[in-house]
Amino acid sequence: MSDLVLRNARLWGIPEPTDMTIRDGRILQHGRSQVGADASEYDLQGALVLPGLVDAHAHVDKTLFSGPWVPRTAGPGLAAAIEYGRVERGKYGVPHPDYIEALLTNMVVHGTTHARSHIDIDPDLGINAVHAVREAVDRLRGRIDVELVAFPQTGLLTSPGTLDYMREAVEAGVELVGGIDPGGFDGDAVGHLDHIFELAERYGIGLDIHLHDGDNLGVYEFDLIIERTKALSMQGKVTVSHAFALFDADPATRQRLIDDLAENRINVTSVAPRKVLPLRDLDAAGVAMGIGNDGVRDLWSPYGTGEMLERTLWFARNSGFSKDPDIELALEAATYGGAHILGLPDYGLAEGSRADLLVVQARNAPEAVMTHPQPDLVVKNGVVTAHTGSLSE
User: Fold this and answer.
1) What is d(CA 229, CA 295) in angstroms, rounded to the nearest whole number?
2) What is the pTM of this model?
3) Is 231 within 8 Å of 258 (Cβ atoms)?
């Protein structure tokens, strides 16, 4: 692999342009260095370099991206949306590797280098969605890494047989166990959490639990999750997605939960909805938070593009952020926060880091979020994988 040199690069956090030399998939050094005659060089002319974007909460298996336009006709509420998706997906061949590949490609060319995707597991699908996503990822030949969560979308207890398929998915190499609204949807908070924690503990893997339940029920479920994390010594291996109860709770309860999350190293993720997570408070307590695109152009919603800078803008706007430090805090959630949650080693722009990065025409990080430009370059493991909106050969 020949050296890659980015000249006149404006690195996030470093005010003056510098050169970056990449060798053997890692950032060798900042500043001028000796490189071989076969080195690939790009003069960035002061363009901004960011670490590769991390989508910490996606549902790529559900997507219809590049496929037919399907008007959403589901009834109101979570249960109606779940049933609508279960009934209608077969009509459109979902999960479809071509649609998944198209979405992942758009994610790649817009700077996403890593993602965590929840994959539907149920008695109708079995683990077919796992195979579909893996096929699509394989087609992209290392341009993006996707970590999978075995997700009981139609319920664990209310959909008999799902637990067996969850176990099959884990034995097939899926990296995490998922869960969904243990009390509000599955009807038995204690039983649901007992099953998924037992499964994760048995196989020595992590958990990522959807928690849309809010108010007192959501707080109760948070306490159950915290209790089990502590009892099973699973600190650092549990993530709560959506986590709407943190928005609903009174200030004292919210702070108590945040302190307990920090103590047990439980992470949270958000997809920038109306119920926005208190990022400033989470950051101050040391709780890692990631941002994700959730579902993109699927039977749940016609919205989304898979572009993480755009999703970061949504989060910043919905949070009421307008000051540069707050906008950068949102970007940190879409980069370093997600990297922490996914357990990515040697992530970032420091010398010695894995060379996953993107180059955008922006003078600073807040401007990159506000304008969310098409990256000029995307680099994965030291190789240019996309250039001005197209995959590189």
Assistant:
1) 28
2) 0.97
3) no
CA distances to 52, 57, 216, 281, 358 from 113, in Å: 5, 14, 37, 27, 9
> Which residue did the predictor score with more confidence, 279 or 37?
279
Residue 112, amino acid = T
Can you read off the two tokens belonging to residue 137?
Answer: 């990822």
Q: How much is the average pLDDT of 258-275?
A: 95
- What residues are paired with 384 via a beta bridge? 379
Q: What are phi and psi of 129, to 5 degrees?
A: -65, -35
The closest alpha carbon to 110, from 349, 390, 347, 338, belongs to: 390
d(CA 92, CA 71): 12
Per the CB < 8 A criterion, the answer to whether 260 and 229 are in contact is no
Give the residue ranges of DSSP H helices in 114-183. Answer: 128-139, 162-171
DSSP, collapsed to helix, strand or coil, labels residue 59 as coil
- Token digits for 52? 């590769």
pLDDT of residue 273: 86
Task: Give 83-96 pLDDT, tens digit per residue.
Answer: 999 999 999 999 99
